[in-house]
Design goal:
Length: 410
């Protein structure tokens, strides 16, 4: 009893302090993000990289702190928290550099050194965080050679980025005045800027491929919970990949391409949100409905767009003399597309649910079969057994039983 009470008296305050720190970290991230935004807006330095850093700082810190507080010991949660804290440090160093650069005279060596360190931290986090999270999601690193190779490649990428920070010469970050690198070391065989990018991108790509292969292997071998977690994470990654493909497809359209590029730059922020839902298992199986609706409405939009464009071309071309102009063609095409929306939606949704939302599809089939069976069945034990079987097939509980209230005879 004395030992137990002693343990409680020691662990209690530590637990409280730990909880307070985890609650304070997202607030610190939000404060740094606000100051960074105000400072960048005042200096006309708002950019996609800045938004990515600010969003990642808040998202990863919040999700990591929440997971570490609610489910302590989760590797993915600790990685998210570390990413967020490193982005906070990078943001604080950038603020300090900008403040020193705003003073009269040239930027002092201390400010330039802070800029180099902050930029190197940001580069390493952006380069390493994706494959690292993929290789650890959702339950930590799997014991395989490919997982070890991923770690080696990520360590090599980080080392290349850090060695690039030691390259002597002028610093051209864009958010400070050009100044020589005070941390540059002459005589060290460091790569040039283009070579650093090429080698780092190669190691990053190879590590990402190996990490994806491991994630697919864990999905195939995993339980239903693990598969649902990976589907959440995969949906976030798939969105980023889809935007990347769309960016290449819209190369000829400058305005649309810029919009897609900005969305792609910010799409990595979906990953911490998906991780939070997956690890906390809040509405975990809603991902099937989200994926089904996303695919179905994408197919519906593409189908109706093809029908609309085809009708306009036909009504303005071969039937132009009958329709009498562009206004009639546009109006008729719009009415036809609107009339076809519901039939196309029903057929498309049923086909997509059959493939991507099997839980709903199978549940509806089970309930329909139960209704058809109970329509002509009067035996109470058989009815009870059918209801329990339908519940087990639809919800998949660990145990199921049916309680019937017995009425009093009159």
């Amino acid at each position: 009893g004395a030992v137990a009470s002693g343990i409680r008296s020691v662990s209690g305050p530590r637990s409280v302090r730990r909880h307070r720190v985890l609650v304070a970290l997202p607030l610190v991230a939000a404060g740094v993000a606000i100051v960074l935004t105000v400072s960048a807006a005042a200096g006309d330095r708002l950019s996609e990289d800045l938004w990515l850093g600010i969003g990642g700082m808040v998202a990863f810190t919040t999700v990591g702190a929440m997971i570490e507080d609610r489910r302590p010991g989760q590797v993915v949660g600790r990685i998210c928290l570390t990413i967020g804290v490193l982005l906070i440090v990078s943001g604080i160093l950038q603020l300090a550099t900008v403040t020193l650069d705003s003073l009269p005279g040239r930027l002092p060596p201390l400010g330039a050194a802070l800029a180099v360190v902050g930029s190197a931290i940001f580069g390493v986090v952006v380069l390493v965080s994706g494959p690292l999270l993929i290789s650890r999601f959702p339950d930590g690193r799997e014991p395989s050679r490919s997982a070890v190779l991923v770690d080696v490649l990520l360590a090599l990428s980080a080392a290349i980025m850090l060695l690039g920070a030691l390259r002597p010469g002028p610093l051209e970050y864009g958010w400070i005045a050009p100044v020589d690198n005070p941390l540059g070391v002459a005589g060290i065989p460091v790569l040039g800027a283009d070579d650093v990018f090429a080698v780092a991108f190669f190691t990053y790509g190879l590590a990402s491929i190996l990490a994806f292969v491991g994630l697919i292997r864990r999905y195939i071998r995993g339980s239903s919970v693990v598969r649902a977690q990976i589907r959440w994470f995969g949906a976030a990654i798939g969105t980023s990949i889809a935007l990347l493909v769309l960016m290449f497809l819209t190369t000829g359209n400058g305005a649309l391409n810029d919009t897609v590029w900005r969305a792609w730059i910010l799409s990595p922020l979906l990953a911490p949100l998906a991780i939070g839902v997956a690890i906390m298992r809040y509405r975990l199986y809603e991902i099937d409905r989200i994926v089904s609706r996303t695919i179905s409405y994408g197919v519906i939009s593409a189908t109706l767009l093809v029908i609309y464009a085809g009708l306009i071309l036909i009504l303005q071309g071969p039937l132009g003399a009958i329709t009498g102009g562009d206004t009639v063609a546009v109006a008729a095409s719009t009415l036809v597309a609107a009339a076809l929306f519901q039939p196309v939606r029903r057929r498309t949704q049923a086909a997509v649910d059959h493939r991507f939302n099997r839980a709903r599809y199978d549940s509806e089939r089970t309930l329909d079969a139960l209704a058809a069976r109970l329509r002509d069945e009067m035996d109470l034990p058989i009815v009870s057994s059918a209801v329990v079987d339908a519940v087990v097939q639809s919800v998949e509980p660990t145990a199921a039983s049916l309680w019937l209230r017995l009425g009093r005879a009159r």
